[in-house]
Amino acid sequence: MLVLGIESSCDETGLALYSEEHGLIAHLVNSQIELFTEYGGVIPEIAARDHSAKIIGILSQLLEQTKYKLEDINLIAYTAGPGLIGSLMVGETVAKTISNVLDIELLPINHLEGHILAPGLEEDGLEPPYLCLLVSGGHTQIIRCDDYGKYEIIGETIDDACGEAFDKVGKLLNLEYPGGPKVSKLAEKGNSNRFQFPRALMKDKNLNFSFSGLKTSVLYALEDLSEDDYSDVAASFQEAVIDVLTKKLTWAVEVTNFKKLVCSGGVASNKLLRERLKQMAQDNNLEISYPRMEFCTDNAAMIAYAGYMRKKLALQAYSTNFARPRWPLGELYD
Ligand code: KG4
Ligand code: ZN
Question: Which of 53, 113, 174, 312 has its CA 20 to 30 A from that of 143?
């Protein structure tokens, strides 16, 4: 079985080939980040146009480099949601066209399922059950993965995603988009105890997140400060976010009794977050793993792999009508 994976839910165009025999054969990603530096965030229409301009070229490059032909493909797995509708529709249209012309089976994949299963792409691939903390520019969720195809979100943000909060604070600190990596770099020089920024929803071991109040507190704090203080602000902000993520993941482990943890998404590259979670895992006798960065951020390898597993295990397929900007995890639709 040779699977073509297609990912275009936000601002990364990804194509991948995954086979029964070889595992991941190759994957290519074009990130649009540079297009959005001047705007300070993703502009959906520009993202969709760039997917449209690049996707066929990337597909050709993937086939050329791996020496496969479209006719060799047995299954096309594409991200059908959630994401930006214009972006999703580019991947969807390419997937449906190849499928129709060459009579190849089509499998829509939920983007979150891709993120959840991404650890399985590693050679000593992690198998469910595990608990997944997904922290990126678009998502902040704690997800139970009891088995392939069996997922449940047990905590999520009620406003901004964690990476989005980093990016917004980055903007307040005059850092270029995306601010996350720059905020954490600046934080290295700062005093994380100087400001006590709020930690939201911390009562009754609530597993949901809220980061918008934190961002507003940073905004108010900056009114009386000069640029010399920015590293302390960055460090105190980062401390607040990581404190919340670590505590909530610990509570999630308490109520679920999972022994394996996965942390994925762009924010998983944050060094301090990794250290804290590693410590928490050690203290509680848990295993924690991080998919390699190229599998943590948006990519088509994880989509191809999710498609491969769904097919192999004969899981009920999602129906294929339309791309869905909102698509609750696990919901079959028509
Ligand atoms: O998964 P990802 O590459 O893309 C999407 O969200 O689609 O995540 C990007 C997010 C951005 O918000 C970025 O600022 C954040 O991850 N990020 C970080 C770090 N590296 C990336 N946030 C905090 N610390 C970092 N080191
Ligand atoms: Zn994603």
Answer: 312
